[in-house]
Design brief:
The complex is a heterodimer. Chain A is mainly α. Chain A is built from 19 helices and two strands. Chain B is of the alpha/beta class. Chain B has two domains: 163 residues, Bordetella uptake gene, domain 1 (D-Maltodextrin-Binding Protein, domain 2); 116 residues, D-Maltodextrin-Binding Protein, domain 2, CATH 3.40.190.10. The chains are: A mainly alpha, B alpha/beta. At the A-B interface, helix 3, helix 12 and helix 17 of A face helix 2, strand 2, helix 3, strand 7 and helix 8 of B.
C-alpha cells in the first residue's frame, strides 16, 4: 500500500498548498481554545467548523478538522491541570494528578508533561494508522456485541478499581453511573424508563451536559466555598518546561504502553478518548512500583492519560475511514465531512482515493509536530492562570459551562441536567466518594447494555453461544488476571516467607 | 355609528394591507432551520446545502441549528413554540414525522401542526449478504432462511430498515434473530465482520462496501430513479415477486408551523423550487437519494402513504401507539 508514489506525490502537493497550511494552523488554534473551554469538546468543535468545509477541497477541509480534533483533545488537559476542571471528557483522568501537581507549585512542569504525552501518543497512533490501517480494520470488524460486552465489563472493573480510594465506594459509584444510563426509552421494546413523563428524557440523560455538570459544576461549587483561599506559588511554577531527555527515558514504558492502549481503544467503535485515558491511567498505576502515589501529582498520572487520549485520534480514524463506522463521537462528525466531499468512507476509500489517505496520514503527523509549538505558547498563558483569584475563575467557568452546554443541542433542558449533575457531583464528593467511577459508569453504560442485550439475542438461550467469542474470552481472562494477580502473588509471597 | 363603522373598516383594510405589506417584505431577518439530528449526518449535510441555496434566493442568511436528542420531539416542539412567521423552519424526517408519532404519545400531529413545503432527501432499503456468502440470489437466500433461523442486522428497531425486514419476513414466511446495531454503516460492518448473516441497509450503502457485500434484492415495490445509479441490475421485490408487498418510506424535507401566512409560504415555496433542479441535485453526495415532491398537497399525501404503510407493520410488532 506504500508503493503508490504518484498518490503520495499528489498528497504532498495538496498538503503544501498555502490554504492547507493556513488551515492547519487555524485548526490547531481553534481546537485548543474549544478544548480548553469546559463543555465544548471535539465533536462540537468539528461540527462548528463543518459548514466552512463546503467551500473547500477535500484535503484542506479534512486537515482543518483533524487539526481541530487533535488540538481539542489536547486542550482539555490544560484546563484540567490549571483549573482542575477537564475541558473535555478525554481529560477527566488527567485532573487528579495534573491539578495536584499544579497546585503544588509545579504547574509549568505538569503542563509540559501533558503536552509531551499528547504529542507522543498522537504520533504513535498516526504511525499505526498509516502502516497497518487495513490490518487494524480487520481487528475492528471482529468487535461485535459479545466482544464489546467483554471490553466494557473489563473497562468498568479496571477503572472502578483504580479511580477511587476504596473498592466498595468505587463499585457503588460505578453502579450509580450505570443506573443513570438506564433512563430513557428502552431501545428494544420502547418501554419508558425513568422518563418522569418528559419527552426530554426519551433518549436518556445527555452525556455532555451530565459530564460537564459532574466535573465542572461540582468543582465550581466546591471552589466557591473557599473563594478567598490563596494558592501559594513561586515564580518557578510559572515557567513552562518540557521534560528533559532523562525524564523521558524514565517514562518511556508509560509513553509506549499508553500510546498503544489509546490506539486500540480508539479503534473499537463506541469507546472514545475518555475511556482510553482511564485505561492507560489504571494500567500505569497498576504497573507502578508506588501505586499509592497516584493521585498526589505524579508525572505518570499525567503522561499516561494524556498520551492515550491523543492516541485515540489515530485509532478512531481506523474504523471511520476503513469501515464508515466512527470510532468516537468526534469521528462521527468527521465522517459527515467526508460524505459532504462526496467520499464514501468504507472499505473502498483506500482503494479509490489513495492520495487522500496519504494526505490524512502526513497531515496528522504534521499537526502533531506543529502542536508542540502552538501548545507551548498556549501553556505559557495557562501557567499564569494560577495568579487569577478563584473569585474570578469560578464565575468564568460557570458562564463558559452554561454557554458550552447550551450550544451542544440548543436546549435549556440540557442546562438543567448540567446543574443537576453538578449538585450530584458536589454531594458525592462531599461524602468522600470519587466522581471518576461514576462518570465512567455513565460513559460505558449504554455500550454495556446494548452489547449485553445484543449478545443475549445472538446466544438465543445458549450459554455456550454467549461465550463463543475467542476475543471476548481472552478479555475476560485478562480481567480475571488483573483482579486475582495481586491477591494470588501476595499469598504466594506470604507462604514463602 | 355608520361613520365609525366606515372608519373601522377602513382601519381594518389598512391594517390588512400593511400586514400584507409586511409579508411582502418577508424575509427581513435571518431564517433558522431546526434539524433534529446531530451535525454531520446525511440529513444535516443535505439541509446545509439546501439552506445555502434558499439563502441565495431570499437574500437573507439561513442558519441551520441542530437540536438532537429526546426522540426528535424537543426539536419538533421548538419550532411549534416559535411564532408562525416563517423565520423558524423545521427539517422533518422519518423519525419526527413518521416513526415517533406512530409509536409514542407525542404533543404534536405532523399533518395538523405543520404545513410541509417539500420532500427531497429519500432512501430505499436493500437486502445484503457478505460477498463470500453461499447465497448468490434472493431465491437461494429464501431457501437458506427457511432451513435455518438466520441472524438479521438492522440499524434500530422500529426504523425503516427494520420495518422492511419485518415486512419481508411476513410476506415470505421467514423468521430471524434480529440485532439492532445502531447505525446503517455499523450494520454493514457487522455483516462484514460476521456478527450477522444478512442485513438490511440502504440502497446507497453499496458505495462504501462494494467488494465486501452482495445485494440480493431491493426491498421496494416500484423502481425509483436512483436505484439504477446505486444498484444497477438488482431487482425490486415488486418486480421479482408480483403480489408480494415491499414498501419503504424514507423521506425528509422542510415544513413550517401551521398558521404561517400564505404569502410567506408562497415565498418559501418559490425559493425552494431550485432544490428540485438537476443542477442542485448534482451538488449532493452520491450516496444521497433524492425524491422531489413540491407543495403542501403532494407532500401531505406522501406522508399519509407512509402512515398507511407503517401503521400495520408497527402494530404487528406491538409498537404502534394507540390513541
Amino acid at each position: 500500500m506504500l508503493a503508490n508514489t504518484d498518490a503520495l506525490l499528489l498528497a504532498v502537493t495538496q498538503l503544501s498548498q498555502p490554504i492547507t497550511l493556513l488551515l492547519l494552523v487555524v485548526g490547531i488554534v481553534i481546537g485548543l481554545i474549544i478544548g480548553i473551554l469546559p463543555g465544548l469538546g471535539p465533536p462540537i468543535a468539528i461540527a462548528l467548523a463543518l459548514p466552512f468545509t463546503f467551500y473547500l477541497e477535500p484535503v484542506p477541509s479534512i486537515i482543518l478538522l483533524l487539526g481541530i480534533y487533535s488540538a481539542a483533545i489536547y486542550g482539555g488537559s490544560i484546563s484540567a491541570i490549571a483549573v482542575g476542571i477537564p475541558g473535555t471528557g478525554a481529560a477527566i483522568a488527567t485532573v487528579q494528578d495534573g491539578h495536584k501537581m499544579f497546585s503544588a507549585g509545579r504547574g509549568g512542569e505538569a503542563l509540559g508533561f501533558s503536552l509531551t504525552g499528547s504529542i507522543f501518543g498522537g504520533l504513535v497512533s498516526v504511525v499505526c494508522l498509516a502502516f497497518i490501517a487495513p490490518l487494524l480494520a480487520e481487528f475492528a470488524v471482529r468487535f461485535g456485541p459479545r466482544e464489546n460486552l467483554a471490553i466494557s465489563v473489563f473497562g468498568l472493573m479496571v477503572v472502578v478499581r483504580v479511580a477511587g480510594q476504596s473498592l466498595s465506594k468505587g463499585l457503588l459509584m460505578g453502579a450509580l453511573g450505570l443506573f443513570l444510563t438506564t433512563w430513557g426509552l428502552d431501545e428494544l421494546n420502547g418501554t419508558e424508563r425513568y422518563t418522569f413523563g418528559s419527552y426530554h428524557l426519551y433518549e436518556g440523560l445527555p452525556l455532555v451536559p451530565f459530564l460537564v455538570g459532574l466535573f465542572a459544576m461540582s468543582e465550581v461549587f466546591i471552589s466557591a466555598e473557599r473563594a478567598h483561599h490563596k494558592i501559594n506559588f513561586n515564580q518557578s511554577s510559572l515557567k513552562v518546561q518540557l521534560p528533559g531527555w532523562r525524564t523521558l527515558v524514565k517514562l518511556k514504558d508509560v509513553l509506549i504502553r499508553s500510546s498503544l492502549i489509546g490506539t486500540v481503544i480508539g479503534i473499537i467503535p463506541g469507546e472514545g478518548a475518555a475511556v482510553g485515558a482511564f485505561f492507560a491511567y489504571s494500567e500505569a498505576k497498576r504497573r507502578s512500583k508506588n501505586p499509592e502515589t497516584f493521585g498526589t501529582g505524579v508525572a505518570e498520572g499525567i503522561v499516561a492519560p494524556e498520551t492515550a487520549n491523543n492516541a485515540t485520534v489515530g485509532g478512531a480514524l481506523v474504523p471511520t475511514l476503513t469501515l464508515g463506522v466512527p470510532g468516537s463521537p468526534a469521528a462521527a462528525v468527521l465522517l459527515g465531512a467526508l460524505i459532504i466531499q462526496g467520499l464514501s468512507p468504507g472499505t473502498q476509500l483506500f482503494v479509490e482515493h489513495p492520495d487522500l489517505m496519504y494526505a490524512i496520514f502526513i497531515g496528522l503527523f504534521a499537526i502533531n509536530i506543529l502542536m508542540i509549538f502552538i501548545g507551548l505558547l498556549a501553556i505559557r498563558f495557562a501557567a499564569r492562570l494560577i495568579m487569577v483569584p478563584t473569585a474570578v475563575i469560578v464565575p468564568t467557568v460557570m458562564l463558559l459551562s452554561f454557554v458550552g452546554v447550551y450550544s451542544v443541542s440548543n436546549s435549556f433542558f440540557n442546562v438543567g441536567v448540567m446543574l443537576g449533575a453538578g449538585i450530584l457531583g458536589y454531594v458525592v464528593r462531599k461524602l468522600g466518594y470519587s466522581i471518576a467511577p461514576l462518570s465512567i459508569g455513565f460513559v460505558l453504560g449504554p455500550i454495556l447494555e446494548n452489547s449485553l442485550r445484543q449478545s443475549l439475542t445472538l446466544a438465543d438461550g445458549s450459554v455456550q453461544e454467549f461465550f463463543n467469542t475467542p476475543i471476548g474470552l481472552s478479555i475476560y481472562a485478562a480481567l480475571a488476571l488483573t483482579i486475582l494477580w495481586g491477591p494470588v502473588v501476595g499469598r504466594f509471597k506470604k507462604d514463602k516467607s | 355609528m355608520k361613520k365609525f363603522t366606515r372608519i373601522a373598516v377602513a382601519a381594518m383594510v389598512a391594517m390588512g394591507l400593511s400586514a400584507t405589506a409586511a409579508y411582502a417584505e418577508y424575509p427581513e431577518k435571518p431564517i433558522t432551520v431546526v434539524v433534529s439530528f446531530a451535525a454531520g449526518g446525511n440529513a444535516d449535510i443535505v439541509q446545509r446545502l439546501q439552506a445555502e441555496e434558499i439563502s441565495n434566493q431570499l437574500g437573507v442568511p439561513v442558519n441551520v441549528i441542530n437540536k438532537p436528542g429526546g426522540a426528535h420531539i424537543p426539536a419538533t416542539m421548538s419550532v411549534l413554540e416559535a411564532p408562525a412567521d416563517g423565520y423558524t423552519i423545521f427539517n422533518w424526517s422519518p423519525p419526527s414525522f413518521m416513526v415517533v408519532p406512530l409509536t409514542r404519545d407525542v404533543p404534536y400531529e405532523p399533518l395538523k401542526d405543520f404545513v410541509p413545503l417539500f420532500a427531497s432527501i429519500s432512501a430505499s432499503n436493500a437486502l445484503y449478504v457478505r460477498s463470500d456468502s453461499p447465497y448468490t440470489t434472493f431465491e437461494e437466500f429464501l431457501e437458506g432462511a427457511k432451513a435455518n433461523k438466520l441472524t438479521m442486522g438492522v440499524n434500530n428497531l422500529g426504523a425503516p430498515p427494520n420495518l422492511s425486514a419485518v415486512q419481508m419476513a411476513n410476506e415470505f414466511g421467514l423468521e430471524f434473530k434480529t440485532i439492532a446495531l445502531k447505525t446503517v454503516p455499523a450494520t454493514m460492518a457487522g455483516l462484514i465482520g460476521g456478527q450477522v448473516d444478512v442485513a438490511v441497509g440502504q440502497v446507497a450503502s453499496i458505495y462504501a462496501y462494494k467488494d465486501e457485500v452482495r445485494p440480493l434484492i431491493i426491498l421496494d415495490n416500484n423502481r425509483r430513479a436512483f436505484f439504477e445509479k446505486d444498484l444497477p441490475g438488482v431487482r425490486t421485490v415488486g418486480e421479482a415477486f408480483p403480489g408480494k408487498e415491499a414498501g419503504v418510506w424514507v423521506h425528509g424535507g422542510l415544513a413550517v408551523k401551521a398558521g404561517t401566512p400564505q404569502p410567506i409560504i408562497d415565498k418559501l415555496l418559490a425559493a425552494s423550487e431550485v432544490l428540485g433542479t438537476d443542477e442542485f441535485q448534482a451538488k449532493l453526495p452520491k450516496s444521497v437519494g433524492y425524491h422531489w415532491v413540491h407543495g403542501p398537497e403532494g407532500v401531505g399525501a406522501l406522508i399519509q402513504e407512509g402512515v398507511d404503510l407503517y401503521s400495520p407493520i408497527l402494530d404487528g410488532l406491538g409498537l404502534l401507539h394507540k390513541k
